[in-house]
Amino acid sequence: MKDSINGIIDIGSKKVVAREAVATGLIRLSPASLDLVLNGRSPKGDVREASTVAAIQAVKETPRMLPHCHPIPIEGCTVDWQVEDDSLRCTVSVRTHWTTG
Known about the structure:
Layout: E1 17-28, H1 31-38, H2 47-65, E2 76-84, E3 87-98
Antiparallel strand pairs: 1-3, 2-3
């Protein structure tokens, strides 16, 4: 492969800049399931709270999951939930100031 990366890009000479990443996902639910989630009545507890914690953990583990990703400090992370008809939309935003490739 002529354009493959053979390691992690050297960022030693890069400038520190503001970085932001946003990811969103949409899940469609039956009316009964949506009611359980919105009213916190799931047999296993608060679904959105557990999912928020999982999203934050995923943010912290990104460099372990993506081999070419530099481990950079996270300055802020927000997890937002919105109800859309028969669906829930989760949006995760992450911010930092750092060097990256």
